[in-house]
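Example record

The entry below shows one chain as it appears in the dataset: sequence first, then structure tokens.
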Amino acid sequence: MYFDSSNSNFEDAIISGSVKDSLATSLWNTMKELPYQETVSLQTAFIKNNPNSIFSAHNLSIIASVFGQEETKKLFDKFSIKNKQSSHGIIVAEFLEIKISKTPKIVEKYVDFSMGNRSGELDKLSNYSGKYILLEFWAS
């Protein structure tokens, strides 16, 4: 397999090599032009049809929370052992181990959680009930 991003950004890198790599490149090029929901549908189909592709494991590790645990588990269970043990597979497995009673819907009451504040003290979201609060979640 050959991966070249020397003349472009990472997203537009040239990937060549196996048939599976060509499938992944074709999927990526198609998704760039589509609305979000259609990209999710295409990714789902790709993951279902290519459970041995590392690209499937990569995609599922990124969008598992979109599917929720039940759908993610169905997709993950069809992965090869090699994909399940990959760094992407481990991320999916860890997501599946999280105890989530249910996925909240938009306009439903929040799921309470705790985390350290800037002073290092543990604080709960419920401590701010009735107040406006902006939560910003990000990862790099």
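Notes for this example: The chain has a mean pLDDT of 80. Residues 2-100 form one domain.
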